[in-house]
Amino acid sequence: MIIDSSTMESEDEESLLGQESEDENSELSDSELQEAFAKGWLKPGMNVLVDQAKKHVNNVEGLKQCLAGFCKDLPWAERLDMTNLPAEDVIYKAEGKKPAVKSGDVNPDDDFQREMLFYRQAQATVLDALPLLSKHGIPTKRPDDYFAEMAKSDQQMQKIRKKLISKQLILEKSEKAKKLREQRKFGKKVQVEVIQKRHKEKRDMMTAVKKFQKGMTDKLDFLDGDQKKPKEPSQAQNKVAKDNKKGPNAKRKYKDQRFGFGGKKKGKKWNTKESHNDVSGFRAKVANAKGAKGAKKGAKGGKQNKRPGKSVRKQTKSRS
Amino acid sequence: MSAFKRKRGGQAPGNKKAKKAKFVADTSEAPKENEQEKTHEITVPAPVSQGKWKNKERVLIFSSRGINYRTRHMMQDLRTMMPHSKSDTKMDRKDKLFVVNEVCEIKNCNKCIFFEAKKKQDLYMWIANSPHGPSAKFLVQNIHTLAELKMTGNCLKGSRPLLSFDPKFDSEPHFAVLKELFTQTFSTPRYHPKSQPFVDHVFTFTINDDRIWFRNYQIMEEDAALVEIGPRFVLNLIKVFQGSFGGPTLFENPNFTSPNMHRRQIRLAAAARVREKQMVKELQKLKRAGTKEDVTIDVTADVFLTPADETPVLIQTEAPEPKVVKKSKHKAFKRQRMARK
């Protein structure tokens, strides 16, 4: 029995006291310990009993005997067991690097490394076992028309497939988004370039015109060049503009034309100096449906004012 | 459905043994059936290949009461993976472990995988060679079952596995015993009636971090492309016994700490951390209370003071004489004073 004075469970005053006494006690003899106990210095809970370092059984002889006892001497075709080192790491081999870790010291907390180790071990086994299997006449591939129950049901496999597909979709989507982002960045550059080019063309044109005006040149070929060159891009640009920004639809256009779009609204309907006496817009045929001579009612086609006159309207209003 | 049931077979002589192969077109019966039916019928060989089933290994896979769902699933998975396994009802917790031996005898099994659940969270696995031993006890950790979606492989139910062992299994005697035990337990006997004649998956046993890691891979191609099927688990060896579920201990894992101990250590560490924090807090409080007085006194205040010469102290014993006031009562005005000057 050894008294260990290192760790105390509770940090009460008692135990604090006890620690001190224990520190003294650790080098005291048994008789002194007894005295201390008699005086009441030693209390239960202050001392921690530590077992002797546990001896772990490892009966090598027994193990060997045991192994010899229950070992069955079966042919390999019955057992199908293999013991081998993990296969060479293909990735490392391809990159021309030496494997970073030996199989002995794979970090068990590194999931990828660890699983790779297991995978490679299985791989090595399969590579070694396949020729042996064929030698023993054990098939590894079932024929295509061989149907039998599988370990996992079709439902389960369907689920797995679905998950795989969804994962792939997510990956693709993210990739697409990435590409788009890059394109947008690039697209801005292109736009700026186009604008700059247009400005430059305009500038050149203006200088050429000025030169011509001043009589420095007689040639008018810059006009041709101007017509030729920018025609294609302008067309293309028009197309792009059409594609990008659709104008208002036909209905809107008509309404805009009829009622106006934007601009000042106030006083638009007022008469002006010119209009106050102008009755050219008045069509007796249309107004009040009182046709001109000779024209019959209803025979005038579509253009007819449906609105009755003011007096009629008043009458109907009061009646109802 | 039964009319279209595809049956295996024809040419294999082992056909006669297959009990369910009643629809197989026998040469004598075939002419009686009409021609159309005959053409539609597909014949597939019986699941068992021809040969004699010699290795009568049977494994009893069962558990104690109080296992959780994950363990139950894993047990089921092991049963699907091992066609030579048998199942039994759960054992009562109060039963002694050596009762398992009797169960094995009743079930005609000579190997046993027994799952023992404790506290509804710790799972122990016994693998035993039933009547005469040896047996090994493991702590099972990190269980993943077949039902998990990340395991994408699949294999025939009842096909025989390849067993792959780490070379470390040959390095130490207790590992050698375990290897033999695993081989005998997990390898499906050849020509077992419930087994399939193909080898399409690999069980791997790897030793890493003082534990045995179990994985199951499907063999996809001849160039050893693999896909994991599952289940997967980690075995932490506790002890190896000479007998089956008992007997003298042959080996004890020195690196093993029981889950109870582990949890206790974590708890203690957490408690110690809290206690330390509290102590620090208290100390700070004390410090704050104590230092307030000291601030008012400057210790270095009189460092530069030099002692001056002592002057004799005079004490007046008599009262001072009254001062004579010389003040002319008729003080001239300012104008007069100026004029006088």
UniProtKB/TrEMBL annotation, chain A:
Record's compositionally biased regions (Basic residues): 293-320
GO biological process: ribosome biogenesis
Keywords of this entry: Coiled coil, Nucleus, Ribosome biogenesis
Regions of compositional bias (Acidic residues) in chain numbering: 9-33
Localization per Swiss-Prot or TrEMBL: Nucleus, Nucleolus
Main localization (coarse): nucleus
Biased segments, Basic and acidic residues type: 221-232
Region described as Disordered: spans on this chain: 1-33, 221-320
GO cellular component term, pick one: nucleolus
Pfam family, one: Ebp2
Domain of life: Eukaryota
Physiological role: Required for the processing of the 27S pre-rRNA.
Family recorded in the similarity comment: Belongs to the EBP2 family.
Protein name in UniProt: rRNA-processing protein EBP2
Species per Swiss-Prot/TrEMBL record: Pagothenia borchgrevinki
Lineage of the species this protein comes from: Eukaryota, Metazoa, Chordata, Craniata, Vertebrata
Automatic annotation (TrEMBL), chain B:
Keyword flag Nucleus: yes
Region (Disordered): 1-41
Protein keywords: Nucleus, Ribosome biogenesis
InterPro entries registered for this protein in UniProt: Brix, BRX1
Chief location: nucleus
Domain Brix stretches: 57-246
Stated family: Belongs to the BRX1 family.
Protein's UniProt name: Ribosome biogenesis protein BRX1 homolog
